[in-house]
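ok so I'm stuck.
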Amino acid sequence: MTQAKLEGLLKIDNESYNLLRVLTMFMKLDNSQDVPLQAMAVFWYVATYQNCTKKDIEKYFDMSKASASRMTDYISRYHRLGKAGLGLVSKEQDPKDKRRTLLKLTRKGKDLIEKSFNTLYEDMKSFEAEFEE
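replied:
not stuck anymore, here's the structure
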């Protein structure tokens, strides 16, 4: 195996490892460690498109209204059946249209995004630091 190919495999392996660490962070949010992949995807969608609506999520993921409701409830303050949610997203009434609810990251959600990015890109930061010295 050539050195370049080996370095490429190590890079992929390291990126996969960092992604696995981010997924593990999500699993630790819920003591049961059963955070659905859909909930993670919806959380990242809200992080990407602040002030989005449940309808936006339904369209983007081709998800039913019931599924979108379950996933947004799961990552917000209150989950179904009165259980506590993950508290990563807040649901706020749209001031322009009282019938719509806007989804935004909470402080906890923003902290998780920051921690995720730090984990995903920590190798890049150390690489950049070498050139800054």
